[in-house]
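Let's practice the habit of predicting before peeking. Look at the sequence and jot down your guess about where helices and strands might fall. Then scroll down.
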Amino acid sequence: MRGGEPAAAFSRASPNRASITISIMLATIMQGVDNTIANVALPHMQGSLSASQDQIAWLLTSYMVSAAIMMPLTGWLAGHFGIKYIFLVSVIGFTITSALCGSSTSLTQLVIYRVLQGICGAALVPLSQSVLLQINPPERHGQAMAVWGIGVMLGPIMGPALGGWLTESYSWRWVFYINTPVGIIAALGILIFIPHTRPTHREAFDFFGFAALSLGIGALQLMLDRGPLKDWFYSTEIRIEATVAALAFYLLIVHTVTATDRSFLNRELLRSPNFLAGTVLMFLIGGILSGTLVLIPTMLQSVMHYPVMTTGLITAPRGIGTMIAMFVVGRLIGRVDARLIILVGLALTALSLWQMTGFSLHMGMGPVVVSGILQGFGLGCTFVPLNTIALSTLPRHLLTQGTAIRSLMRNVGGSIGISVLVGQLTGNTQIVHSRLVEHLRPDNPLAQAPFLGFPFSLTTPSGIAALNAEVTRQAAMVAYIDDFALMMLVVLLAIPFLLLVRRPVPQRKSPAE
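Done guessing? Here is the structure:
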């Protein structure tokens, strides 16, 4: 963290290096697990809280948006109050809000607590990386980042299986309660072992730009989440949210262009084609990543009637594919053009989504596992090269802000992707259901015996109910396939952005450096 506590301040605490590493990695893994552990439990939460399919998605979008908004503020807070105290407050707050999420009795309560959880959890990953770099000498930074990377990847891999086991054995509330013991241990370790260093007052923070961006993103997300429920622009609420979002983004643009001193979105970032193209690609990839993590577990449980534990085990290999890709890319990144690696990753992601458009109600587990591993590998091939390309051409003093903006855009892309895909899923299910029902009438020979066997019938209430349930199930499957096709189209449309990317040329150091 530029301008933060000097590395030597933590290096002097080398006898506690192992204890500090364990403490911060517990916090990192806890946050990583939380990103995926709740996905497999969504159908159970939906039934317990009497929520619709689009409403239950608010639990994910609210967390992602609040975390995205708070990320750029992390560096400023750490510079003013010290890394130790901000890290400690974040871990304690994340642990408390996790317990509150588990104790929620209504959807409104759960969404509010998820927002607070996202606010507290935003700082965990960037601060854990910063602390690891500061407690290790430069020659150990590679090993430290390897340990950190394993922790970051371990969370998403463990999340689905752990969430399935907790939900099946206990209840969905335990996917949040599980954070309590881990958070307590991590907080005690941070409190005891991380030394407090003198806060260093960093450069001024642009609160007007930050407020405008936060208000714009929040209003836009509310509009996307509430739109399907309120019939979009026929609702006064949606029109107000759209107006607030448009006005906030307008003020942000004007402020960025006209600010004479430091602005939240530094104008130098906008002069880098690689940064702009890489950020757009990260935004789109965030939507694909988060969208699939939501759709697959709900499809397996609500449409194909898989147990929640089985669902968790089937979706876990996706994270393994990403981890394998990270190791492969780590060996290729200095030898192969990063743009070629990204192209291969996007092509594999599109191929996996094309495979998913062939899903059916009669398939086994194989297609889900294979497409999941392939997609995880494809997306894993894009993360590291995208960061390398987008940040390598930026001046050193813009790296911190560039990293924060990219993390924000990935989370915003994920939350918008979830809202759009779940909204499309709900709408398309209703449309396909109505079209299928048109053919279920007494004068249709195919709707009579022997073609329409038990338990289906057009003459008995139980037969009609069973028939309607099956039609809804088939309509939902068609809607899921339509969502997969939409995501495949987005990936294909993202590939041309690589034409805007230039191979980074190592910058010469100035005499002052």
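How did you do? The first helix runs from residue 7 to 11.
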